[in-house]
What we know:
Blueprint: H1 14-22, H2 35-55, H3 63-87, H4 99-124, H5 134-167
Amino acid sequence: RPRSHTVTTTSSSFTTNLSASSSTLAYDKEFLRTLPGLLMVTEIVFGLLVWTLIAGTEYFLYPAFGWVMFVAVFYWVLTVFFLIIYMTMTYTRIPQVPWTTVGLCFNGSAFVLYLIAAIVDASSVTEELDSHNYNSWAASSFFAFMVTSCYAGNTYFSFVSWRSRTLQ
């Protein structure tokens, strides 16, 4: 007995709405002039210094530096991701996401884990380990504390923003 091969097609307005909404990509050039924007750029620059200074050494021989590398690279990538989200104003297109809460959780966790990583980094730097890598590890420790202070500042601004949002 032969089977009937009927194909039913339907059109959706989703593709029409998607193409109409994505044709105008917003760009917030003023974000980099705000203190949270400047802190975010500083986090990216100093975070890049942290992990490149460690990556240029034999860090894999010492587990403590592996932890610092993980934290530095992980939060560097996420910070670049969030900078793109804020610069392109993507957060306005996804109102279902509680962006103030996400920002607070991100910056708070980055502050705590970077503080731990900076302390681990600083306490692991000794001349006895390897004098060839000493300067790179010492510099990475300094910049890790600088990034930690930037994340602390952004945590404060995120908390103020979250607090004002929850009081409304």
